Amino acid sequence: MRENKGITLVALVVTIIVLIILAGVSINMIVGDNGIITKAKETIEIQKIAELTEKLELEKAPVAIENKGEVTITDYLEHLKEQGIITEEDIEEINELQYYITLSEKYVFLVEEIDNRDVKITYIGEPGEVPPRITNLVLESTSNGITVKVEGLRLENGEYTYFIKSEKEEEYTESVATNTTGSYTYS
After folding, report:
1. 102 and 56 in contact (C-beta within 8 Å)?
2. What is the pTM for the complete model shown?
3. Can you give the C-alpha Rg of the chain in angstroms?
């Protein structure tokens, strides 16, 4: 008696199809949008932000020791510059108590002095994620009109919308003008 041992062509095709499906699922789990590599990159970014935040928090201690427990924003920023952590180009003043500082040319933090003479540090995002803001607002009035001139940062392709309300109105109503120049005269 003779026995044929081996696999049939159907069994071979089914085996290959199962292996292809498993390979596809494995590759997607590794490199897909929700895959291991993507999650690892996100975790690295979160770790870097936490590391920089901690570094900024730790740098408050020498300032507090030198100033009897108080950390003012000006002393803190001067200390960061002395330590070589930031340069003058890394600092953007919002007002006298709030500043944006950029670390590693990629991470922007809001540093603000709070009531108890301490500094609060908040991660904002990357430079492209920092919101635009008005840096200069000039109002000029004449006998027959008011001119508004606005300057700002990060206003590329920005659009200005102007609203007017009387003293008696509680809310601004519809806009009176929109432009990209930052200057408007209401007559």
Report:
1. no
2. 0.66
3. 30
Q: Which of 57-61, 107-111, 116-120 has the lowest mean pLDDT?
A: 116-120
How much is the pLDDT for 61? 94
- Segment (H or E) for 122: strand 118-125
Task: Tell me how far apart the alpha carbons of residues 25 and 30 are, in angstroms, rounded to a whole number.
Answer: 9
Confidence of residue 2 (pLDDT cuts 50, 70, 90): low
Residue 55 near residue 101, CB atoms below 8 Å: no
Please spell the DSSP secondary structure of 31-48, one letter per residue.
Answer: HSTTSHHHHHHHHHHHHH
Q: At residue 10, what is the residue type?
A: V
Tokens of 96: 């006298």
- As a whole number of angstroms, the distance between CA 85 and CA 107 comes to 13
